[in-house]
Amino acid sequence: MAKVFSGIQPTGIIHIGNYLGAIKNWVELQEEHDCLFSIVDLHSLTVPYDPKGLGDRIKDALATNIAAGLDPEKATIFVQSMVPEHTELTWLLTTITPVGNLERMTQYKEKSEKQGLLSGLLCYPILMAADILLYKADLVPVGEDQIQHLELTRVIARKFNSTFGEYFPEPQPKLSKATRVMALNDPTSKMSKSIPGSYIALTDDPEEIRTKVKRAVTASDVEGEVSPGVANLFTLLEAFAPKDVYNKFAKDLEDGNLKFSELKPALAEAIVEELTPIREKRQELLAKPKFLEEVVAAGADRARREAKQHMQEIKELMGLNLTF
Ligand code: TYM
Question: What is the tens place of the pLDDT at every residue in 195-204?
Fold first, then answer.
């Protein structure tokens, strides 16, 4: 049984990119593996944020993920800051992580251009490596945008193992079929919570979903080629629609008969059908804060037991055994 770790930031918006790139995979993996899933609140502090709303955003991320199928009986679900070993291991790993590797991270370059050079943003991938390595995870189900961070996690694991003794496995990514869902309003960029108009949120109601799909950009620069926007709609159709519906439109595309006036409503209805029960379940869960509190308390408890044990072993390997 593989050990699986993954996380999601409590940003207030969980979109179908997160769902198809990560969460759906988590729901499958929890059936067969030892899984830990974390609401990574500490990562979310690296961009400007409103501290007053953070508690609600954490609660919301939790309710949405459970509504989408995460099961506290099958997986360990917890909030990152409730397990202080994550920050403790981060410090230890900073001491073996070259600054040059951090400066090369694409997300760091993009975000630091917008908001300045803060060390939290630079060290963000070390906190992510600590999340994964703390549990000695083998598999990390993420979307494509996290692959570079995961490569760095393996670099850090190798450096630790060669310096202090073989300890960490080298975690591998587990990608879904829709590993990079593109923005609906600009299909050359990734769907992202920070680009309004780019995403369909798991909380969008049927009318919002229909309007967003209707507006999705499909224009092509090159005559006769499948445009990035159309390719993205087919990625979504494959993920959400029944196989025969997907096959019909794939054939229409091949035969040059594709009609957006048919494709877009069919796609919108398939998305509505999958998201409606999630939206309703999320509402139910948000009305049960006691239940959500119990889930994370139990999850953090379980995670912490393992984290403590591993931290003790890691500290011993690093010479921090403190017995005189
Ligand atoms: P976050 O919160 O930005 O996104 C959560 C997950 O959603 C995936 N994702 C996408 N997949 C496909 N298409 C898209 N357009 C799309 N947008 C987002 C992300 O790849 C991610 O898997 N750094 C991470 C959180 C994290 C983490 C970890 C993940 C912290 N520690 C340890 C794995 C292991 C992040 O910001 O994800």
Answer: 999 999 999 9
Residue 129 lies inside a defined structural domain of this protein: yes
pTM equals 0.96
**Distance (Å, rounded) from C-alpha 214 to C-alpha 264?**
6
pLDDT at 222 over 70: no
- Give the bridge partners for 174, in sequence order: 141
Q: Is residue 192 part of a domain?
A: no
Q: Are residues 260 and 167 in the same domain?
A: no
As a whole number of angstroms, the distance between CA 108 and CA 130 comes to 17
Number of domains in the chain: 2
Residues lining ligand 1, Cβ inside 6 A: 5-9, 17-18, 21-22, 40, 43, 128, 131-132, 140, 142-143, 145-146, 179-181, 190-191
Closest atom, ligand 1, to C-alpha of 124? 23
Residue 164 shares a structural domain with residue 272: no
DSSP E strand stretches across the chain: 3-8, 34-39, 76-79, 139-141, 172-174
Q: Tokens 């877009």 — which residue?
A: 264
- CATH code: domain of residue 154: 3.40.50.620
Residues 150 and 217 reside in one and the same domain: no
Give Cβ neighbours of residue 313 (< 8 Å, ≥ 6 apart). 167
Q: Per residue in 96-134, pLDDT tens?
A: 999 999 999 999 998 888 888 899 999 999 999 999 999
Flag whether 187 is in a domain. Answer: no
Residue 131: domain span: 3-179+289-317
Whether 99 maps to a domain, the answer reads: yes
pLDDT tens column, 32-42: 999 999 999 99
Share of the chain above pLDDT 70, in %: 99
